[in-house]
Amino acid sequence: MSLNQDPKLRKIQLGETLFTLSPLNLNVLEDIEREFGSTSAMVTALQDRPISTLKKILWILIRDNHPDMTPDSIGRMVEYQDIERLNEAIAEVLK
Fold first, then answer.
1. What is the rounded distance in angstroms from the CA atom of residue 19 to the CA atom of residue 61?
2. CA torsion angle for 54, 20, 81, 95 (degrees, to 10)?
3. Structure pTM?
4. What's the CA gap between 79 and 50, in Å, rounded?
5. Quick one: pLDDT band at residue 29, thresholds 50, 70, 90?
6. Is 66 helix (H, G, I), strand (E, B) or coil?
7. How far apart, in whole angstroms, are the C-alpha atoms of residue 12 and residue 35?
């Protein structure tokens, strides 16, 4: 990706709300580092505690565009059948 190219914004539907996910930028990377210690620690956390880690990553990606959301409010919106779709959406952002 060129530095002057706009990152592709991804959206995800949770319940009745369409959320815009932040692109992988320095702020998101810093938040991941702050939450997990490093991006490699995030990958390890996804293997060790996939559900809680998924919720934290989703919150990091949502909160810039939806500051009213909390990890708990996101957790209430995500149902079991949504988990695979969320994993795919998050993987696309983190590429």
1. 10
2. -50
3. 0.84
4. 15
5. very high
6. coil
7. 22
